[in-house]
Amino acid sequence: MAREVLSPAAAALSQLASCNLKELHLKRADGSRILDSLHASCRAAKVIPASAPDATPKERYLAVFDAALAGGLGCWILDYVEVVCADRHLTSNDPLEAYLLDGGFVKAWAAACLARAEQAATSALTADMAFHSFQSSGQLQGQLAQTRVLVAVLRALDRIRAAAAGGAMAGVAGGAAGDRLSVKEELRQAVLLEQAFQVMDWCARQGLAEPRAAATGRFGSYPEWSRAVNARRARAAPRPLFLDSLLQSLSLSGAYPASSVQHMLHTLLLVVRDPEPAAWAAKLALLSYFLMDAGALEAAAPGGAGAAAGLGPGSAAGGGGEARVEAALEELRRTFRLSAADVGVWQCNYLLDCAVPDGPDGSEDPYLARACSLLPSCVTPTLPFAFIEALLALGRPGVALAVDRGQSGSEASGSGPAAAAAAGGAAGTSGRPCRTLAQATTLLDTRLRCGLMTEAFMLLRQHVSDLAARLHAAGGGGGAGGRAELEEHTRVLLGRLAEWAAVQDEAGAAAAIAAAGGSTATLAAAASTGWLNRLTELPLNATEESVLVSWLVAEAEAGRPAGDFLPLFFLQRGRVNEATAAWRRWDARQAALAAAGRRRSPVSDLVAAALDAAHCGGLPGPLRNVMVPAPAPGAEQPAAAGASGVPDLAPGQGAVGILAGLLDHMSPEQPLAVLPFHGAEPPPLVSRAVQLPAPHITAAQQAAAAAAPPGSSSQPQGHQQQQPFVGMPLQLPAAAPFRAPPPTPGPDAFGAGGYQQGRFFRPAPGGSGTLGVSGGGAGIGSGTGAGGAGGLLFSVGAGAVAAGPAPGGGVVGPAALAAARSTKRYKPNDWF
């Protein structure tokens, strides 16, 4: 088998790779070092250029390291750092050898290599043709590979130096040595150049290395492009463009647009010297924005093949251009190991800056439609809040709400007890960072524009809870300043909520006026189901209630329709006195407006009815049930009424109406018990009627009553035991009580010559009997269903009776009456 013959360059590199790294500095007997022979071999194989200096051992070391880097022996250099520089016991008394064994030599060599690489990158990006030749000659790939080796070497050296500094004494001399051997700055430069060459390589693979103006894609000239960017800023004001936010994060204000792709790359990669992850992401975001804005990705294809340019995302013929943009961004994501959400957000930066609200004719903006379809799938906890603001400003509150809910869900998915404790959250908080007042107002507006008033109120509660938790964690939640801040946030947010509800109600009232002539009933119905009425029905805490009352008072004093709900607010919470006072102040202004010819507020009838209901609800049940209907015109008065003179007072009103038999009830199933009036005085007693069973009279009592002489039962017996008080049905006389006191009821009062018989009241529902006196000594009432005795005003509920016949239906004699009567002399106003 024939042995493979290596080229001189490969043989020299193979000899270099197989040497002992710890013996490179050692001298032979002839005074030469092993490194000198390796240098000579590489120089003979033309691995080291003939023009490279080699007068000193240091220069020969540098040349050998350059040859290893150019020949692909980056691992050999990395091994030198790990084996030689990391060995603290490997040293020499020779200052030159000590320097070569120290990491300071590798640091100086890497710094020189980085300077040459940066010069090459600068030269490639400052001239029109240089980038193309730099890429086509293979220098771009070589520089990228070498820069990656330098990054690995410097990271290893930084790790070794950090470990050595940790084991040494932290003295002044040690600190100075650490500063001398620190490679932090060189490592930053190496990472920066690695990023630059990676981006340049990706652009070259997208066909962007050809010399051409960036404005030839979508715009006819550079000034036209600048005017388009300024028009976007004016259209979005006062909201800043996403472009301006990216420029500000990189300190590049006013550097957009660039005249060419090469100029943009030079500004991003070499002028902004910040390799940190946040700045790196901003650079890629701004680069993708620039390429989409210039139309370079649509017009260019891999290999430099051109295509139709200037096609927006919504154009019919733009399918191919849009597909090329998506393919290029997908390759960008894979090349730099990015998430799909990050690349989608960068794409939405450009789309939302170019978007305009939908037209009045319903036409949809293609940029806005594309952004709305893409953004909800790219939501992360770190998504800037500016996206919600932009969507709300562009008339897409539904998408903005979806983004906010998605962000809340993504935050909640990674939150737990440990995460909540790490974030300083407390019980009852949302677990997400506390929003500012402006952000909370925007989120509130988002929900209100979607018609979600209850969810907006819940957002207000959650924001105040998060703010209270943050203030408590900061130690200022219990002070006056913390309470004032909580009240201020509540006032702003609840005021915004109330203003929105008032505007919606005014729009609804205007629509009701336009429809069907705007009748008062229609307006009142609209007001009773309006947004402001729903807001007043929400369960408010003390701070929220105080804020809302203040807002309603201010609206009422300003004469705006929203102030009409102030009395209703108090009524809904059972505060009748405050509601009445507010109604008095408000109703006078409404009457003046009505007198001036303006339409009276539709809430007037609603509030008046609510006030009536509140006052009626405060009355006892029996009095609430009283109703005295007016007598029908031309109806004949009963003879008894004419004889007693009752109609001479006030027919059909008050006690006269009751005594005239006109008593009715609002609800037949509710109790009714009323005492007669004394003229204009209120009734002295209003209570529920006491439903008593018929008294049970034993046989012994019946025998004793029969044996007693007539009239003896009417006198009280001093030696008898006092009977306990028993509530009795209400007794009414046959005539007006203020004319003559009635006699004491007794057996002698019930007979043919006793009280006048007749219908005192109308039959109660469910019964056919009459209220009156049974004549001829017949006993207590002979009617059924609503029977009673002695002009009894009783419960008229569903056939209930106040008193009835004794069990068995027999006639009760005088003894039974004596057992049931009271020994007290009745006064005109005391009918018990």
Question: Your description of this structure?
Answer:
The protein is mainly α and 832 residues long. The chain has four domains: 8-202, no CATH class; 219-413 and 430-450, no CATH class; 480-618, no CATH class; 621-629 and 641-703 and 727-832, no CATH class. 54% of the residues lie in helices and 1% in strands. It contains 35 helices and four strands. A two-stranded antiparallel ribbon has the order 1-2. α2 (34-44) packs across α3 (57-70) and α8 packs antiparallel against α10. The longest helix has 35 residues, at 480-514. Mean pLDDT is 73; it is low at 168-177, 302-311, 314-318, 414-427, 639-653, 684-693 and 713-832.
Could you outline the blueprint of secondary structure elements for this entry?
Elements: H1 8-17, H2 34-44, H3 57-70, H4 74-85, H5 95-101, H6 103-126, H7 130-136, H8 139-167, H9 172-181, H10 184-205, H11 222-236, H12 242-249, H13 261-271, H14 277-294, H15 296-299, H16 319-335, H17 340-354, H18 366-374, H19 386-393, H20 397-413, H21 417-422, H22 437-449, H23 453-474, H24 480-514, H25 520-528, H26 531-536, H27 542-557, H28 566-572, H29 576-595, H30 603-617, H31 621-624, E1 626-627, H32 639-644, H33 654-659, E2 664-665, H34 699-707, E3 730-731, E4 792-793, H35 814-820
Helix pairs in contact: 1-2, 2-3, 4-8, 6-7, 6-8, 6-10, 6-13, 8-10, 12-14, 13-14, 14-17, 17-18, 19-20, 20-22, 22-23, 22-24, 23-24, 24-25, 24-27, 25-30, 28-29, 29-30
